[in-house]
Design brief:
The structure is a single chain. The radius of gyration is 18 Å and the shape is globular. Helix content is 32%, strand content 24%. The protein starts with a strand and ends with a strand. It has 2 domains: 165 residues, Thiolase/Chalcone synthase (Peroxisomal Thiolase, Chain A, domain 1, 3-Layer(aba) Sandwich), CATH 3.40.47; 151 residues, Thiolase/Chalcone synthase (Peroxisomal Thiolase, Chain A, domain 1). It has 336 residues and is of the alpha/beta class. α3 packs across α4 and α8 crosses α9. Bound molecules: coenzyme A (COA).
Length: 336
């Protein structure tokens, strides 16, 4: 089967940084509580910047990093699209000057980036495209209940993007294997209850269009699903935990990632984390963490990576990746 290699990476953040101290001025919380329970010290909340704006900036950086100005396909993972209809990806493709390429959104909440990687890998391996721009972009600040201290402190806005290209099988620096899963029975763990078609046919349904989460249950489920999915994809790849140089988990919570590493019997020093600076950026979190790691010199060509994510749906997914020789710029801070 055709191989798939990563050839570029980029990211973008809105330039409005919100510290834990800022939030303590808005609600009954404290820097100590937020850092202790989550590891998060700050996040970026856009004022007017849309998900599409962030996706365009991240996409441009990824194309520059890959030294190319065209791709055959754009796959955008988001739960906070610019409009309920249409998808955000076609506008992003047009604004990037990519012409009439296939472009669509993937909705798998915080697992969205791994799902989008899987979709793009399928297109490339199946010969439907030779190159793809895969973007995870979110503006959770637009759906958060800013009076709900148990959710508002966790999430931030941002976008991360990678360029994938078809390659000869066995080419170094490839996206190896992927594991995906879901359990719709648990959809109420992380959700926006109202605003969709369900409430129209279910009188009395919760019509709130604000984000809601059952934090403790999410914590437990996330650890279990990410660990199981990681084990599955490692098996499929013929790798063991000892083969891994780095684990890049969805940046949900420092304690969740620590527990996943423990379950895999991996040293916690292999965890790549940037959630202290950007919070949980949902579908953008894995590419933004990868970008931070490459621009700070942590990642080297040939390193073996495990990516793993958990999100609303519930959904989960993991991938194995051999890191390429790639040059990238830090995330673009865009005026908001
Ligand atoms: N500041 C101060 N106190 C807070 C608070 C905040 N921001 N949020 C909740 N609390 C309080 C609660 O009201 C509760 O008080 P009580 O004991 O008086 O009732 C207490 O802290 C403990 O709340 P609890 O929800 O049990 O805390 P927790 O240890 O489970 O931590 C989360 C809460 C949300 C940080 C944790 O459950 C978590 O990280 N879950 C996973 C969330 C996640 O990663 N979601 C995205 C996945 S894709």
């Amino acid at each position: 089967m055709t191989g798939v290699v990563l050839t570029g990476i980029g990211g973008a953040l809105p330039d409005n940084h919100v510290s834990n101290a800022d939030l303590a001025g808005l609600m009954d919380t404290s820097d100590e509580w937020i850092r202790g329970r989550t590891g998060i010290a700050g996040r970026y909340w856009s004022r007017t910047t849309s998900t599409g704006d962030l996706a365009v900036a991240a996409g441009r950086r990824a194309l520059d990093s890959a030294q190319r100005d065209e791709v055959d396909l754009v796959v955008l993972a988001t739960t906070t699209p610019d409009h309920p209809c249409p998808a955000t990806a076609p506008a992003v493709a047009a604004r990037l000057g990519l012409g009439p390429v296939g472009a669509f959104d993937v909705a798998a909440v915080c697992s969205g980036f791994v799902y989008a990687l899987a979709v793009a890998k399928g297109f490339l391996a199946g010969g439907l495209a030779r190159s793809a721009l895969v973007i995870g972009a979110e503006t959770y600040s637009t759906i958060l209940d800013r009076e709900d201290r148990s959710t508002a402190v966790i999430f931030g806005d941002g976008a991360g993007a990678v360029v994938l290209c078809a390659a000869e099988p066995g080419t170094p620096a490839s996206l190896e294997h992927i594991d995906l899963g879901s359990n719709g029975e648990d959809r109420q763990l992380v959700w926006v209850p109202g605003g969709g078609s369900y409430e129209r046919t279910h009188p009395g349904a919760d019509r709130s269009t604000r984000f809601a989460m059952l934090g403790r249950e999410v914590f437990r489920t996330a650890v279990t699903r990410m660990a199981q999915s990681s084990e599955a994809v490692l098996r499929r790849s013929g790798w063991t935990t000892a083969d891994l140089d780095w684990i890049v988990g969805h940046q949900a919570n420092e304690r969740i990632l620590g527990a996943v590493a423990d379950r895999l019997a991996a040293d916690r020093s292999k965890l790549i984390m940037n959630l202290d600076r950007v919070g949980n950026t949902s579908a953008a979190s894995i590419p933004l963490a990868l970008l931070d790691a490459v621009t700070s010199g942590l990642l080297a060509g040939g390193d073996r990576l495990l990516l793993t994510a958990f999100g609303g749906g519930t959904t989960w997914g993991s991938a194995t990746l051999v890191w390429p020789e790639v040059k990238a710029e830090p995330a673009d801070l865009i005026p908001t």
